[in-house]
Amino acid sequence: MGRPEPGWVRPERGTAALSRFMIWLTLRVGRPFGEAILPFITLYFLLTARQARRASRQYLARVLDRPARTMDVARHFHTFAAAILDRVFFLSGRYRGYTIDINGLDCVHAAMAGGRGCILLGAHIGSFEALRSVGRMSPFPVRVLMFRRNAGAPTRLLEQLAPEFARNIIDIGEPDAMIRVQESLARNELVGMLGDRAPGHEKSVPTPFLGGVAAFPAGPLLVAGMLGVPVILFSGVRTGYRHYTVRFELLADQITIPRGRRAEGLATWMGQYARWMEGLCRAHPYNWFNFHDVWVAPQVGKHGGEP
């Protein structure tokens, strides 16, 4: 038997029948119904999701610079649930009533002018669907490289709302994933990926983050360095009720990792990525939806911990 998977590589909660009914009812009755059940969903996970609750408390203690209270964790869960509700409407093409501010598109156009394609590197901050909504208006096709082995009924049902999005997913678990990435970039397309969570036992890079040391996957940076294409950081932060801000900023025209100093090169680039992510977390502390323990060093000070 192989080693067990990390704690986050496990099926999502939610049965297919219940998820299908809730999505159908939300779309049929409208957003008021979805908003009415958000407090109950928040309470359910607050009471039952011990691992996520503990990870939320650890993270919030760092980003808020004080011990995290139960209400802080509840707000974190509620923000995540609200983003999932918005995702239902984004995927079904119902953008009416939403405001999506877009900043930095000029750097995307400049990168794509080279004809090499471009990697969009993000994190579990805000909503990936907000980026996809921008992709609908983009003259460049957007492919998404993601790990789907732990996708449960809720995610698969949401993807059924927008089959064209599902067709543009490149599954990390498939043997031809990297070939498809290279082919997409050769066609001068955008390839989006998230860099703050490693699937399976992928090599990680210990990186200073929010006063501690976190383990972030080396894969995205190694892929970008191998392919030699521009890398743009992106985020789609939920900044208010039905309000998102999508931002793009150039990380590098080309990531270079010296062969003889691979560890040092990875640490340098990962440090830049972590500082970008830390800035977003400080500005929008309840928008980081990585409910897993990423810390590899003891908690600094006396904050955090599960009561």
UniProtKB/TrEMBL annotation:
Keywords: Acyltransferase, Cell inner membrane, Cell membrane, Membrane, Transferase. It comes from the Bacteria. The keyword Transferase applies. InterPro entries: Ac_Trasf, LipA_acyltrans. One of its GO terms (molecular function) is acyltransferase activity. It is found in: Cell inner membrane. PANTHER family: LIPID A BIOSYNTHESIS LAUROYL ACYLTRANSFERASE, LIPID A BIOSYNTHESIS LAUROYLTRANSFERASE. This is Lipid A biosynthesis acyltransferase.
